[in-house]
Specification:
The chain has 129 residues and is α/β, with parallel strands linked by helices. It has a single domain, classed as Transcription Regulator spoIIAA, CATH 3.30.750. It is globular and about 35 Å long.
Length: 129
């Protein structure tokens, strides 16, 4: 995979969705991430975890995409959570001073647990099935 390419995969997690990003998110391909997140927000997905475990980098257009989609989700009571930022991505996040725009977790599993805590009845139903 070249550094200008990005691969985005989705996986349902009960009523929520995990979005896994691999490669580099930049101005050229951040619209691809935006389209995926916009569709989830349009469908009023209650929680979206964006995992950067396989990402090599993200520029400010990628971070702006996350902020925009987080705001769209907050408008209907949804949440966007970010997981697995490597040190390079965490540095970019702190440089643009967008703390509070979305919650950041060390792992996708930690973020999923936070969403379950938001909706304990749905978590119980998922565990029963």
């Amino acid at each position: 995979m070249q550094t200008s390419e990005v691969e985005i995969q989705q996986e349902p997690l009960g009523p929520n969705t995990a979005v896994r990003v691999r490669g580099t998110v930049n101005m050229e391909n951040s619209p691809k991430l935006r389209n995926v997140l916009k569709k989830l927000a349009d469908g009023k997905t209650p929680g979206v975890i964006v995992s950067f475990e396989g990402a090599q980098g993200v520029d400010t257009s990628g971070l702006a995409t996350l902020v925009e989609c987080s705001q769209n989700m907050q408008a209907y009571g949804g949440r966007l959570l970010v997981a697995a930022l490597n040190s390079h991505l965490a540095d970019a996040y702190s440089l643009v001073d967008i703390e509070g725009a979305f919650a950041i977790f060390d792992t996708e599993g930690d973020a999923a647990e936070a969403l379950k805590a938001d909706h304990p009845k749905e978590a119980e139903q998922d565990a029963a099935t």
